[in-house]
Amino acid sequence: MNRTPAEVEEYLAKIRKTVADSQAVIDAAQLRIQETDRLLASQGLTREQVLNFNVTREQKLAVNEELRRRGLPPLEEDDTAFDFNAATAELRSASESAGATSATPDDELAERQRRFGNLLHEFRI
Fold this sequence. Notes:
mainly alpha
């Protein structure tokens, strides 16, 4: 398999382009990491603290419900056997049986926004 110098040079040019593209991706990722660290530091957090957050199933359901209500996609589920619709129905029935029926729709919306804001407060960057 003898290759001409032009073929070799063309092949090396492709390799150089691939290496340059890969380096650009690495640089972009490092910039994003630095920006994330800076934003976390402004909130008084570290990456280790964020990694140690323990979000409960109920909190995740509440966040997913609020995201769906706002027309956004839900958070990804780790458990493939998890039935989101059944769990959401369970969460709704639990909140309805807690006695939230006496409030007006505006009061309920304000309360839901307040609870959602409180839930996400520790995750703000």
